[in-house]
Amino acid sequence: MKDIARFIAGFERFQEKYFGEERELFDKLTRGQSPKTLIVACADSRVDPALLTGAEPGDVFVVRNVANLVPPYHPGGDFASVPAALEFAVLSLKVEHIIVLGHAKCGGIHALMQGLGSETEFIGKWISIAERARTRVQAELPSKSPALQDRACEQAGILVSLENLLTYPWIAERVQAGTIHLHGWYFDLAAGDLLHYDPASNAFDAVTPA
């Protein structure tokens, strides 16, 4: 029960700040949301997109799932949670940026690399979205350590999701028109660094302050 008590105390601090000191923000948010950025992030408890970016309530629309994956476009898919969120963010909220935020030590990617998905009911099928990332890493880095291969697959998985985003016609159209911009980010848990994918160099480089 210690965690529950801590969470309730945390809510009380949140309530005091946003419904006391900064009441105007939630007065505005009760009339609707208009975030300009969608973040597709991992469900991992160590990687909170709002915490990492310093976002305030209403700043970002967030979709979290195992290994921050975006499935390819498939019309009429059953219970398509991620596509439904993408559709709402793009067509209704009209976001201008989509960030795929991956991270180091990702359990989903580790399971993919170790072939552990067959032992699960749901996870295996889900992480198979990034199967081509695993295939690429195993082909390009066959003699590297498991830890290095995992890291490479974590980053390659981000690229798979970016590629899959472009299979949605209403995202591809907006990217082509320049009204939506796609970003690949990678949070290094050990170093505390944020890396971004640079298409020009085909590599993840450290983010530098503007």
Your description of this structure?
GO terms for molecular function: carbonate dehydratase activity; zinc ion binding. Its EC number is 4.2.1.1. It holds the Pfam family Pro_CA. By secondary structure, the protein is α/β, with parallel strands linked by helices. The chain folds into 2 domains: 32 residues, no CATH class; 172 residues, Carbonic anhydrase (Beta-carbonic Anhydrase, Chain A). It is built from 9 helices and 6 strands. A 6-stranded mixed beta sheet has the order 2-1-3-4-5-6, covered by helices on one side. Helix 1 packs across helix 2 and helix 7 crosses helix 8. It is globular, with a radius of gyration of 18 Å. It starts with a helix and ends with a strand. The model has no long low-confidence stretch (mean pLDDT 95).
Please outline the helices and strands.
Elements: H1 2-21, H2 23-29, E1 37-42, H3 49-53, E2 60-65, H4 81-92, E3 97-103, H5 107-114, H6 123-127, H7 131-140, H8 146-165, H9 169-177, E4 181-188, E5 193-198, E6 203-206
Parallel strand pairs: 1-2, 1-3, 3-4
Antiparallel strand pairs: 4-5, 5-6
Helix pairs in contact: 1-2, 7-8
Number of strands: 6
The proportion of strand residues reads 15-25%
CATH class of the largest domain equals Alpha Beta
The string of secondary-structure elements, in order, is HHEHEHEHHHHHEEE
Radius of gyration, CA atoms, in whole angstroms = 18 Å
Shape, please? globular
At the fourth CATH level, what is the homologous superfamily of the largest domain?
Carbonic anhydrase
Catalogue the unreliable spans: none
Arithmetic mean of pLDDT: 95
Largest sheet: 6 strands, mixed
In the CATH hierarchy, the architecture of the largest domain is 3-Layer(aba) Sandwich
Protein name: Carbonic anhydrase
Keywords: Lyase, Metal-binding, Zinc
Organism: Candidatus Accumulibacter appositus
Enzyme class: lyase
